[in-house]
Amino acid sequence: MTASTLSPAPVAPAAPQPGRRARRRQENLAGYVFLSPWLLGLLGITAIPMLISLYLSFTDYSPLIPLTEANWIGLENYRRMFTADQSYWHAVQVTVTFALVAVPLKLAAALAVALLLNRTMRGISVFRGLFYLPSLLGGSVALAIVWVSMFNRDGAFNSFLAIFGIEGLPWVNDPDWALSTLILLAVWQFGAPMVIFLAGLKQVPVELYEAASVDGASPWRKFVHITLPMLSPVIFFNLVLETINGFQGFTSAFVLSNGTGGPVDSTLMYSLNLYIAGFVDLNMGYASAMAWVFLLVIGAITVLLFNTGRFWVHYSDNEER
Amino acid sequence: MRFPFRLAALLLILAIVLYPLVWMVGTSFKSPQEIVNNIGLIPREFTPGNFADGWNKFDVNFGRFFLNSALVSLLTVAGNTISCLLAAYAFSRLRFRLRGIWFGVMIGTLLLPGHVLIIPQYILFRSLGWVGGDWPYLPLLLPQFLATEAFFVFLMVQFMRGIPRELDEAAVIDGASPYSIFRHVILPLSRPALVTTAIFSFIWTWNDFFRQLVFLSDLKDYTAPVALTLFIDSGSENAVGPMFAMSLLSLVPVFLFFVAFQRLLVEGINTSGLKG
């Protein structure tokens, strides 16, 4: 198998290093051999479906008819989405509210607990592991079921309130409160960003704190002027990741509302709305248009985050961006 | 903050964080009356019957649903580790034409929301007769065998970049081809990245709901998460105990993985920024 790479090419001494050229050709071929599953996936699972989806977004396609019989309706789906579909705007509002509230709360909880854990003491890794556990379990249907039951009329949360003589609400059935229970579920999973914060905190040079102590800085000033700037790349990383995840919430909203987005559309997350349009109402052309707007908005938010990041994310000089 | 306060704060937060899980375990052993009346964590009357009731609640029992979930998850693990390993080797070690462009495309797909592709994929797989066909899991598994989880490709690329290049170069001098370098140098040294990928793919697939909800149409093919939603449909008060019992059972494999690989999981998200 290695004969070709070893051949010293005695027949053509004038040619510059033909063995090397053969090797390069072999490497090029090998590159594509190893990449072939990924390339197939890119083409068949990602690129072609994306193009189909773009085409469908200009049609009235429904899975009840063959793809070839879908009617081209131009921008009608987009017009309807932006001007005539109230539940669409409702879903946008629910999703934005969810992301704007859940992401900062989750990151704040993650940072606060990471600061508490950022000490060398025994048992830290046990705490760290247990705080991380909800991040592993929290996205599941099983946990969403438990969460919803906990905030039911007879749930554990109301039993807890009853101890203080407060009469609770059926939180998950109340349009004003249902989304809040989902936000709490998201915040409860603060473990994953916490672990990342903790690793970031370990990288902050101790000398900075020592120097500040010598200058008589208060803990608060140290936090604001040392910890936050030094941690800003990690905060940024978590912010991007959690925001993108936040916009894609689906499972908990599906479980709470049994797939309807209720009560009164109060948990109609964007993805759930898209699922209902495509797989319940079988309006796949319309749902494809929703998917494309979603993709563009997520892309725009990512670009926006990266652009604003320049103003507040501090990278050490010796660190590559 | 002084040590006792710090510890007290941590313990309080831990209690809040673990409460839902403990409550879940307690409730799955409570009788229907106790679920409404007993606000405590521990059931007065131990009711293991919830597990038998939940197990046999639907026409297909939960053993089948768990087996289905295990089948999908394990095959996903196989697909992800193999296909992402191959792609990562190409990206991190081989020089080939357009490599930079393909790598950029791969990074681009990292941020691509899966929900955007679900409708055209559904149409494509359905037109091939794969949805609800003889191979109900093909739509769930095929993408995993084609390295579409860019997260894992990226994770392994990062890992392989850390393997000293001198090893490859020595092998090249010995006349090794790119294939034998992969087989004898990179593959054995990539074990930690493979294990991390395997564990995360198992847990994510085991917990996944959206794709399984869309692509599975026959009750007998349902995975555990899809089957659990049937309890919500049935909705009666008497179903709460069994519903909790089955929910609890469905979390056991993830919990065991957590216990066995806690260190690796925590370090895994550190090195790669993976989401748990």
Walk me through the structure.
The complex is a heterodimer of chains A (321) and B (276). Chain A is mostly helical. Chain A has a single domain, classed as MetI-like fold (Orthogonal Bundle), CATH 1.10.3720. The two termini of chain A are 42 Å apart. Chain B contains 14 helices and no strands. Chain B starts with a helix and ends with a helix. Chain B is globular and about 75 Å long. Chains A and B meet through helix 2, helix 4, helix 5, helix 6 and helix 7 of A and helix 1, helix 4, helix 5, helix 6 and helix 7 of B. Chain B: Its main location: membrane. Chain B: InterPro entries: MetI-like (IPR000515), MetI-like_sf (IPR035906). Chain B: Belongs to the binding-protein-dependent transport system permease family. Chain B: It is found in: Cell membrane.
The tally of structural domains of chain B comes to: 1
| Total number of helices of chain B | 14
Number of strand elements of chain B: 0
Please identify the structural class of chain A as seen in this structure: mainly alpha
Based on secondary structure, the structural category of chain B is mainly alpha
Assign a percent range to the helix content of chain B.
Answer: over 70%
Please identify which CATH superfamily of chain B we are dealing with: MetI-like
What's the total helix number of chain A? 14
Largest sheet of chain A: none
Share of residues in helices of chain A: over 70%
CATH superfamily of chain A, called what? Answer: MetI-like
CATH class of chain A: Mainly Alpha
CATH fold call of chain A: MetI-like fold
Pair of chains with the largest interface and how many residues each contributes: A-B, 99 and 100 residues
Order of helices and strands of chain B: HHHHHHHHHHHHHH
